Amino acid sequence: MLILECPCCGVKAEETELHGGGEAHIKRETVGSDDDAFEQYLFTRANPRGVHLERWRHANGCGKWFHAARDTTTLEVFGTYSAQTYEPPKAIIDAIKAKRPDWSLKDWQGAT
Amino acid sequence: MKRYSAFAIAREAARFHSGWERAWRSPEPKKKYKAIVIGAGGHGLATAYYLGKNHGIKDVAVIEKGWLGGGNTGRNTTIIRSNYLQDPSAAIYEKSRSLYETMSQDLNYNVMFSPRGVLMLAQTHHEVRGYQRTAHANALQGVKTEFIGPQRVKEICPIMNIEGPRYPVLGGLFQARGGTARHDAVAWGYARACSDMGMDIIQQCEVTAIKREGGEVKGISTTKGEIACDKLCIVVAGNSGHLADLAGFRLPLESVALQALVSEPIKPCMDIVVMANTVHGYMSQSDKGEMVIGGGTDGYNNYTQRGSFQHIEETVRALIETFPMLSRLKMLRQWGGIVDVTGDRSPILSKTPLGNCFINCGWGTGGFKAIPGSGWAMAELVAKGHSPLTAEFGLDRFKEGRFIDESVAAGVAH
Amino acid sequence: MSNAVSALQGATSDGIAKVTEVGLRGMIILRGDLTSAKLKKAAKAATGVAFPDVRECHCDGDKGLAWMSPDELLVMVPYADVVDATARIAKALAADHALAVNVSDARAVFSIEGAGAREVLAKLAPVDLSRKAFTKGMFRRTRLAQAPVAFWARDEDAFDLMCFRSEAKYVFDLLTISAKAGSQVGFL
Questions:
Q1: Angle, in degrees to the nearest 10, between helices B183-196 and B42-55
Q2: Contacts of residue A73 in chain B, CB cutoff 8 Å?
Q3: What average pLDDT score do residues C49-75 get?
Q4: CATH superfamily of this structure's domain A3-109
């Protein structure tokens, strides 16, 4: 069972209190963007076997959105962080790199 | 290959079963093949089989990281049906269903295809209208289905409570020639037939790199060495994103766990497959007597092939109103498989940005029923460069907005 | 004026804990900046209890303040006073980015009391209800089986729980079944 600590209310919530919101830090395309950009935004997703950055909502709880860094093969959680950011804070990146020294944010952004 | 037959059983019985040969060979890989299929699940093996049988391409290797049929082929709920709304889906799934009818004879391998009938319950008025529409569409597509009323549902499946307080059964979409098959046997039957055609099935061999040159695929690196090929076909379900990464392109899909569970074995009580999409559960009874129950997907990316506690509760709770007898059953075991779900919930059978590299993925939660049709269509695409069955399932549809929008492979009941 | 009644009109059940629908209670959802002194003052003026910290609920009879989320506070007052109390808070915060809404009739409130109260809730919600982890004055939004609820510890073995009024019967039945005599797990 997946357990994430909600950074908004501090509850260590198990997955039935939470709702997964998919890949984090997606760049939103809008008027003026071309078809390729819209395809990327709407459909193309990072689907890594390993470290993943995601959006979550504490749906059966305080109701707030937040971010989580997690490994999709081990379900290990590296940390959760605020939803009000374009990329993970240094503490999260350090926590990931402590366990996965080869991981880089750049690779993840380009990862499939 | 020695044929399986009643005569063969009698002959072997007379000599203490000492003459059976292995169903397929386990050779070391050659330096080069005309075509390599990555993934020895149902879809990969079927692709290889029809490459040989329909197109005469027999210099083929099927590469498998684990063991043959050990992924979703061995983890699904074995349902076969073709009652889809959109024409491209109905075409490929009906092709598939019809191939299942003769598969045991074609492969000389008993896949235990059981056309016991598949019933999709309508438990809201929206579903009634939706399934009536599907029944009409199926009539135009040449797929035999019918919309039936609640009394007929009760006759077909007497253990069902059609008068539940929350979701009474208002009718159902019934496909009498849908059913189930023995999932492992489908993989084993194709593997045996492929091996017999001289194809090499190489298990416990993980692909570590895909070699490219001038925008074309040249071969693969594996844990058993380098293998060159003219054409490459990636058929790896949940791991499609990872293999696409190795091939240098991205896919519009995400991998999630889909779970199922079985009850303790009980006496025969239900001789059809029932799917209840509103409450989110589907069930059939296996030949061993276990009630085979399918649930939903986990709502997040996941590569762990495991079950989780809350899915037992959710799925069984969903079914108990409609099947009260389940409340007295013990659940025996649960498991999960990794399904690859696309943006429009329909599969991808397509060329890729890499020359001579093809991909068959995105079957999501609905792949088992499609195995023979998918293999048939994919083999044609790989051999000829086009196939009428795959034409609408290209990767380009996401950019062009030509979705096949009917939740073929949604994270819902299948 | 219509005669307001609560969802289950005081239904009760007894087992390892006593479950009671406590009747009408005034409830105001107050959204705004919970760090603002003005908001704190308005909330305290309406209830007379101390302002709660994260995941806390301070109660005094029918009155209380509960921390719902980083920008949301639940203000509880006697049902008869709720309309006036809402107006007073709205007036006090008129110049601020804040919103006070009377949601009393959208809610049902239960009390769960007795030696087995913690077990009754622990069987239904994914929350650590051990005496050490869930202490008096703590507040928690979560789910009870399929229903979203919030509960708080009024005392060691006494909890109040609120849910949507439309789900009152479902929640009452859940609590009653969970409190059935002889159903102690004995784990807490």
A1: 40
A2: 303-304
A3: 96
A4: Folate-binding superfamily (3.30.2270.10)
Q: What string of DSSP letters covers C73-107?
A: EEEEE-GGGHHHHHHHHHHHTTTSS-EEEE-GGGE
Above 80 in pLDDT, residue C173? yes
Structure-token match 């991981």, residue found: A103
- State how far residue B342 is from chain A, nearest Cα, in angstroms: 8
Reduced 3-state DSSP string for B328-371:
HCCEEEEEEEEEEEECCCCCEEEECCCECEEEEECCHHHCHHHH
Do A10 and C54 count as a contact with CB atoms less than 8 A apart? Answer: yes
3 state DSSP class of B205: coil
Residue C134's CB: how many other CB atoms inside 10 A? 21
Q: Does domain B118-180+255-342 have CATH number 3.30.9.10?
A: yes
Instruction: State which residue of chain C sits closest to A6, comparing Cα positions.
Output: C69
Residue B411 has pLDDT above 80, yes or no: no
What digits encode the pLDDT tens for the residues B103-124?
999 999 999 999 999 999 999 9
CATH number of C12-178: 3.30.1360.120
Q: Which helix (H) or strand (E) holds C173?
A: helix C168-178
| Confidence band, pLDDT 50/70/90 cuts, at residue B307 | confident
**Residue C69 above 60 pLDDT?**
yes
Which residue type does C86 have?
Answer: T
Output the furthest CA–CA distance in chain B (Å, rounded): 65
- The mean pLDDT of chain A is 94
B220 neighbors B226 (Cβ within 8 angstroms): yes
ipTM of the complex: 0.93
SS3 B277: coil
On the question of pLDDT at B99 being above 60, the answer is yes
**How far off is chain B from A90, nearest CA to CA, in Å?**
23
How many Å apart are CA C12 and CA C19, to the nearest integer? 5
Mean pLDDT of B89-106: 97
Neighbours, chain A (3 or more CB pairs < 8 A): B, C
- Chain A environment of B249 (Cβ under 8 Å): 112
| Domain boundaries, given as residue ranges, for chain B | 28-82+84-88+183-253+344-410, 118-180+255-342
pLDDT digits 0-9 by tens, A77-92 = 999 999 999 999 999 9
Strands (E), B176-224: 179-180, 200-202, 207-213, 216-222
Q: How far is CA C137 from CA B110, B186, C112, C150, C152, in A?
A: 66, 60, 15, 13, 7
Interface contact flag, B399 A1, Cβ < 8 Å: no
B301, A42: Cβ pair inside 8 Å? no
> Which top CATH class is B28-82+84-88+183-253+344-410?
alpha beta
Q: Which residues pair with B258 in a beta bridge?
A: B297, B337
Matching residue, tokens 């849910």: C163
Domain locations along chain C: 12-178
The residue type of B299 is G
- Residue identified by tokens 């939004």 is C141
CA quadruple C41, C45, C47, C50: dihedral positive or negative? positive
Say what the pLDDT of residue B409 is: 47
Please check the confidence at residue C47 and state whether its pLDDT lies above 50: yes
Digit-coded pLDDT (tens) for B283-294:
999 999 999 999
The sign of the dihedral angle between the CA atoms of C179, C184, C185, C188 is positive
| Domain boundaries, given as residue ranges, for chain A | 3-109
A–C CB contacts, 8 A cutoff, strictly below:
32
Mean pLDDT score, B381-402: 95
